[in-house]
Fold:
Amino acid sequence: MAIDSRGRERLIKLDARQVHQSHLGNMPHSNIIGQEEGCRLKTHSGKEVLFLRPTLFQYIMNMKRSSQIIYPKDIGPILLHGDIYPGATVLESGIGSGALALGLLRALGPTGRLISYELRQDLATRAERNIRAFMPQASNHTIKLGDIYEGIQEREVDRIVLDLPEPWQVVGLAAPALRMGGIFLAYVPTALQLHRLHMALADDPQYELIESFEVLERTWHIAPTSVRPDHRMVAHTGFITRATRCSARTSRTRAELLAVFTATQREALKSEGDVEDEVAEVLGMTGMGTGGRMIDLTLGDEEEPR
Structure:
């Protein structure tokens, strides 16, 4: 990684036969090879350049891309909330340019296993190049060309991590592929996708502990006379949703509750005890009914649509 005096980074692959060329001047790669990491060398025009081995963060932000990547600010929480650990078997779909796969492989270690489903050959090729350039010995990584919407062959997988346009289509397929206690995690950019995914997980009795969140990252400007937030920040990039695979619950699903909870049946449902609490919890908000009417679960009165 070549870094100029203004902090601008340029990712280079060292080759003794090549010359690094930039606006600061030329630098033969042979002058860099063998130097201590963190050295400062001068170009032919006398400009100083700092050379460092790239961190995973720097590599992801500077590597070649064929598609939008999941940024490091989201990769970190994905690894923690997904509980990615050394030795685990993780199934990923939507490899893109390989940014998330790099984070997963780093967390899995040499004893773990990563299986990546990808529909497009060009993306699979680009991702494999990016991964091999940073992790040439990643023999525990397998890329499978195929459509995960059509089925998952693997079983007893520890974690499933998705970066897909319609991850709700995989909810039912993921349950038999995951081991009991395994974690399902998906990354989506829009609120509409988030809602549909969350509802699909809530409707499936094999998932519990469902939660969704986003991560906002803001750097700070610190100078001798001032400390303030920077004017720009990395705000919304996507939503992360995770759920745990469990034995199927016996209580009714959200879809079943919506089907039976109508204004005309409300009185009959009162005899079932705490059904109103169950409805309120599953629907996610008190007062949501069917047929375009709002039903107050507390007072028992119907309210006209607003």
